[in-house]
Write a structure and sequence with these properties.
Layout lengths: L6 E7 L5 H12 L2 E4 H14 L7 H7 L5 E6 L2 E6 L11 H11 L2 H12 L1 H7 L4 E6 L2 H5 L5 E6 L2 H10 L6 H10 L12 E4 L5 H16 L1
Parallel strand pairs: 1-5, 1-6, 2-5, 6-7
Antiparallel strand pairs: 3-4
The structure holds 2'-deoxycytidine-5'-monophosphate.
Length: about 220
């Protein structure tokens, strides 16, 4: 009996482009670990705000980062980042984090402390018997796993994305976060060369998932 390969699926895209729902459903369909790296940046931002470390105070920020201890807890098929043993609270989806996260995420040292942690999720997935992982973010196919088996980039019309957030009852500065995330120097949001670009504006979630799944399935069978 041949053992099937461990696969890495990278999904990048702008705010509210459908990455999370798509990744979650793919994780279910193929028994993959789901890793939402946006939630990591959000948790880190929330932690730094609580510690009163403003992004504008570079010395304080560089001083605070090495003290943060990361570990992982599995919740179903999802990897949750713990900082100092604590999971993120609901505030990571709130307005204050929405408004600040892109500023912290633009700092190279902030990205550097999460880099190894994100790559380390391969070990977590293997340890728990997953067939691979699906990791979503902004720089997964470009920086974290440029050699991923599959690299997808989701985009959708900004008006449609704002509508999706509103339907979830969430306030989010989708366009402003995209502007900041695309224009930063380190690991900007962009479709990396060779990635499969999917426009989901006129597709249902099921149609998007089916498109990605059609590429992945042959590798796992
Ligand atoms: O996926 P999300 O909208 O929850 O991500 C929140 C923010 O985190 C996003 O605006 C930019 C940052 N982020 C990042 O810089 N790199 C990633 N790989 C994931 C998120």
């Amino acid at each position: 009996m041949g053992s099937s390969p461990f696969i890495i699926v990278a999904i990048d895209g702008g705010a509210a482009s459908g990455k999370s729902s798509t990744s979650r459903l793919l994780a279910e369909r193929f028994n993959l670990l789901h890793v939402d790296t946006g939630s990591f940046y959000r948790h880190l931002t929330s932690e730094l705000l609580q510690r009163r470390v403003p992004v504008s105070d570079r010395a304080a920020l560089l001083g605070a980062l090495p003290a943060l201890k990361f570990s992982t807890r599995l919740e179903g098929r999802s990897a949750r980042l713990l900082i100092g043993g604590q999971p993120a609270g609901d505030e990571i989806r709130g307005q204050q984090v929405n408004e600040n996260v892109s500023h912290y995420a633009a700092v190279p040292e902030v990205r550097a402390v999460l880099l190894d942690y994100q790559r380390g999720q391969v070990g977590v997935a293997k340890q728990h018997g997953f067939r691979g992982l699906v990791m979503e973010g902004r720089d997964i196919g470009s920086v974290i796993f440029p050699d991923a088996d599959f690299r997808f980039f989701l985009h959708a019309d900004p008006a449609e994305r704002a509508k999706r957030r509103a339907a979830e009852g969430r306030q989010d500065s989708v366009a402003e976060r995209d502007r900041l995330d695309s224009s930063r120097k380190t690991a900007p949001l962009a479709c990396p060369p060779g990635a499969i670009d999917i426009d989901s504006t006129f597709l249902t979630l099921e149609q998007v998932v089916d498109k990605l799944a059609a590429q992945i399935a042959p590798k796992l069978n």
